What does this fold into?
Amino acid sequence: MRFKRYTTEDYEDVCGFLIELNRDDRAHINWNWARFEWMIGHPEFDKGAASSIGLWLDRERIVGAAIYDMYFGEAFSAALPGYGALYPEILDYAWRELRDDAGLGIAICDGSAEEIEAAKRLGFTQAEQTETILCRELDKELPVVLPEGYRLAELDPTKEPMAAQWLVWRGFDHGEDRAAFERSETTAAEIPCFRKHFNSALSLAAVAPDGDYAACCCLWFDKRTDYAYVEPVCTVPAERGKGLARAALCEALNRARSLGAKNAYVISDMAFYKKLGFEQACLCTFYWKK
It folds into this structure.
């Protein structure tokens, strides 16, 4: 067994680790290969700290990892089945290396009794903060309904980065001021083109009659798994209430189903997803140490 710090050469192996981690037991589905890929290529991801990600290897196979979430202060810690004895060491590393001035928060599935006990022994205490993971079985084709004049189109953020970021900026209520958007740290940062497993056919935008992007849904799927992951979904304020995000999501889910996805997961507790048949798969509670 050996420890190493993450380098870009480890990217594929980390994705493989997360795929294996969630293959038979979905207690860690809040951290999956798709969330890692979405995060590590996000313009707000603190790339300068990536070497702080800790990896535990059995020969050349990653069997444990401690990964911060966008910034220091919240992190993910896990070990593969059969390597649970490593978990306290992994969690202690996360506390020492991935905390910020406020401490460190770890989201642990409520059913993971051994991880919860290990966190408590290391001085982490349960908080009211939770993370809900919803799941929908992709057992049938979903209806895709758009208002007259609207259409769906693929929106590849690796080819149209500014258009994609501008849509997400407005869709997550940052305003309609284009100049403010262009001055923002998100835009000023290097717009990522790194999406190694990205499938543009699963990244859909609703296009308004005037040609402007009005809503989007991005779905992630890898044929080494049987699930799709939803991240992100949004609609610009002026276009809400028309079913645009629903249509984009339903079409993306249909496409993922045709590729072999049996289920779709999203980290959310929004009624929007529940109305589409998503149900709670697990609840993660945060444990904090300050």
Remarks:
- DSSP finds nine helices and twelve strands in the chain.
- Residues 2-132+284-289 form a domain with the Aminopeptidase fold (CATH 3.40.630.30).
